[in-house]
Design a protein that fits this description.
Elements (H helix, E strand, L loop, with lengths): L7 H9 L5 H7 L8 H17 L1 H4 L9 H6 L3 H7 L5 E6 L6 H6 L3 E7 L3 H13 L5 E4 L3 H6 L7 E4 L2 E2 L13 E2 L2 H11 L2 E6 L5 H7 L3 E9 L2 E10 L7 E7 L4 E7 L14 E5 L1 H6 L2 H8 L2 E2 L7 E3 L8 E11 L5 H5 L3 E7 L5 H8 L2 E12 L5 E8 L1
Parallel strand pairs: 1-2, 1-4, 2-3, 4-7, 8-10, 16-17
Antiparallel strand pairs: 5-6, 7-9, 8-9, 10-11, 12-14, 12-15, 13-14, 15-18, 17-18
Helix pairs in contact: 2-3
């Protein structure tokens, strides 16, 4: 941590160049003898990335920014604020502290908070920033959080863990045991230190596989921001043996879309052909796997077991996702389709369809955009169809 960066003139230079061309700036070199141009450019890039993601940090004077990867990997303030309402108590420890956004918001719900971060430089940065933010109840420790727990006699009301993916793991789908720290391997020990464990995971994790890796899962949260899934949360309560509550939330600018259900409900629902309206659930619901619950709670019919599109004759109010008025339904026919549609551009979505959007655009010559929405899917008779809609 180069404290020269905190000098008034340097901070003014960073603010002045937030929208500058970084490549050109680097070529010019640093105007400050005790600060490299790489250090300057990192502060500019990381602060710029924080403008909308971390507005409290962005608007606070003399915040020191870590390498941009820490900004990219950290929670946004929006998701951190939501998470902080899930638990409360006297003592809390974040054993994978990172840039400290989550810990900051949890400190508003707990009396005593520990931020443990194995990276000594990052821990110093977080300590400095908490001072700038005037936080008084967070103790920062430059240590492996798991090792700290093993060497303390203290028990906590909640342990928070944000495991990081191991560098040697390939591919997009991975298990919790492929992360550091290895939570499944240490789960019994962790429950000797707290009866409540909250684990943040990447949205790439498979929910069912993660449940099977853990113990005492009480609640699962699928958190999206503006219809993009950002993280999965697993709330564990020692000795919990009841059904798991699955809660999805889509954090929007003016409101939140929340959809709750209980795992392993044996629901009866109907399949039907497209009716008057079409519904596509938001991404948080789709990630949760609560497809049958959508049909049950909104009293809609599914087009097909694997299509995850829903239909009804009467308009459903406040559906958590996109709602469309169905204008026409066509059997999928590559040769006839362009003529039947009579449009030059459309918004295309595929659900349970053998071709990609790119392949469809190539064969139909349809450009992207316009007011027409086309869903290429499979109906309850296993027939390939195209649903032409208007968005409501």
């Amino acid at each position: 941590m180069n404290t020269n960066i905190l000098h008034t003139k340097v901070q003014a230079f960073i603010d002045k160049n937030l929208n500058a061309d970084i490549t050109k700036l680097i070529l010019k070199g640093s105007p400050f003898k005790d600060i490299s141009v790489q250090e300057l450019s990192n502060q500019i890039i990381s602060k710029k990335k924080s403008q909308t993601k971390l507005p409290t940090w962005f608007t606070t004077a003399n915040i020191y920014y870590p390498p941009k990867i820490s900004i990219e990997q950290t929670s946004s303030e929006k998701t951190a604020a939501y998470k902080a309402n899930l638990v409360s108590g006297k003592s809390f420890i974040d054993i994978t502290g990172g840039f400290g956004i989550d810990t900051y918001y949890f400190s508003k719900k707990f009396e005593q908070v520990i931020h443990a971060e194995i990276n000594n430089d990052l821990s110093k940065i977080v300590t400095h920033n908490y001072n700038q933010l005037q936080v008084k109840n967070i103790k920062t420790i430059a240590s492996d959080g798991l090792e700290f727990l093993k060497n303390t006699s203290q028990k906590f009301d909640c342990i928070y863990i944000d495991p990081s993916r191991r560098n040697d793991v390939k591919g997009k789908v991975f298990l919790l045991k492929d992360c550091l720290p290895n939570v499944p391997e240490n789960i019994d020990f962790l429950f000797t230190k707290s009866d409540t464990i909250l684990i943040k995971n990447s949205p790439m994790l498979d929910i069912t596989a993660t449940i099977n890796e853990l113990k005492f899962v009480k609640e699962i949260y699928v958190i999206a921001v503006n219809n993009e899934v950002k993280e999965l949360l697993f709330l564990l309560k020692k000795n919990h043996k009841e059904k798991i509550e699955i809660k999805t939330v889509n954090l929007l600018k003016n409101n939140n879309q929340e959809f709750y259900f209980t795992s392993k409900n044996n629901l009866i629902y109907e399949f039907d052909l497209p009716q008057s309206f079409l519904y596509e659930p938001n991404t948080a619901i789709l990630k949760s796997g609560g497809f049958n619950e959508v049909a049950h709670q909104y009293k809609t019919s599914k087009l097909h077991q694997h299509s995850h599109l829903y239909t009804s004759n009467n308009l459903v109010d406040n559906f958590h996702g996109r709602t469309f008025k169905i204008d026409a339904v066509y059997p999928y026919n590559k040769k006839k389709l362009k003529k039947e549609l009579s449009v030059n551009k459309a918004n295309i979505t595929t659900r349970n369809f053998p071709k990609s959007v790119a392949e469809i655009r190539k064969e139909t010559k349809l450009k992207d955009g316009g007011s027409v929405y086309l869903f290429f899917t499979t109906n309850c008779h296993n027939e390939l169809i195209v649903i032409s809609c208007s968005k409501l």
